[in-house]
Each structure stands twice: as structure tokens, then as C-alpha cells.
Amino acid sequence: MDFKELMAYQKAFKLSMTIFQVSTQFPKEETYSLTDQIRRASRSVCANMAEAYRKRMYVKNFISKLTDSDAENSETAVWLDLALSCGYVSKEEYEKMYNETLEIGRLINYMIQHPGKFGCKENE
95 lies in which domain range? Predict the structure, then answer.
């Protein structure tokens, strides 16, 4: 199986692309702050998941990269909170994207708790 087949990766990638589209409407003065940060965080969720999958031969490395992915997912949620508070996204857009971060977090945590189901050797 390729990491791109992971449900968590697919959902994170889709959210990252949604955030990209939505953030194109953020004010220009946010280009190097909120816009850049929310895009980087959401993309890092995917990138860290891909790295974790490639390191699944070693449980500790797998879990470490997944915890990085989970942290980036939480950071994405904070940037979404700020985007809402600044009035850059509607309540409806926010709720949809925020709920996706929650679902992605649950999927990542499932992977962390069950590394053997993702090709890790449990005793290493």
C-alpha cells in the first residue's frame, strides 16, 4: 500500500487544498503571516504522514512522525480559529474545515495507537 491510499492522508490532502483555495481570498497584508502559516501547517500534516509511512519499519519513528503530523493538524485548527475571528472565512466554511481537522486527528491517533495495522513491527 502507498501512503496516498491512507484515508487520513487523503482527507488531510483534500483539506490542504481547500485551505489553499479559501486562503487566496485573505487580505494581501496576511500573505506572510496567516496565509503562509495556515498553508504550511496544513501541508505539513500530509508531508509528515508520508514520512511516517516510509518509516513504519520502526515503530518509534513511525509514531514520532505521526505525532508531528498531529501537531501540525492542531496548528492548522488554530490558524482556522484566527481566520474566523478575523472575518476571513465564513462560519460555515470554518465549521466544515475545523470538523475535518477533528476527523483527521482521530485518524492519525488511530494510526498511532495501532501501528501494527500499518505495517509496523510491534516489538521494535
Answer: 3-117
